[in-house]
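We treat protein structure as text, and this decision shapes the records that our systems exchange. Such a record has a labelled line for the sequence and another for the backbone structure tokens. The record that follows is passed on verbatim for readers who wish to inspect the format:
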Amino acid sequence: MEFAGRFPHSLDKKKRLIIPAEFRAVLEEEQPQEKGFWATIGMDKCIYMYTPRGWAALKSYFSDNPFQKEESRYVERWFYANARFLELDPAGRILLPDALKDIAGISDKVVLVGINCRIELWSPERWAAFQARVEPNFDRYAEEVHEEAARRSQAP
């Protein structure tokens, strides 16, 4: 299962966000009995959202990789302290907690971005800044990612 695409949306008067049908379909196909997403603060000051199965895989990662360094403990604490399960209502909407919206700088508009196994929620301003930073450098970034992958595949 994977998420892809970019969808600008607005929150309704009750601060609910409609999840695009494409994203709801991934959730329905993966785990039809669980109607919602796990959300937490992500890197670059956006919100990460995972399906219940994706969240379970992430929990497994944290459990299998016990954190020893101070920074690692901070990441785990921040990640879980800000986590919430956001239940989908029958209309396919979620209610975004104020704490997550505040950290991500989201007010009445949001950009939903499908990133493989997660959905990212961005304030339109931060998303525009991200695009402005990445677009002129995309070729160089892609080459660096490819070179890093090649180095890792050659490592003993």
In short: The chain has one domain: 3-124. The first helix runs from residue 21 to 30.
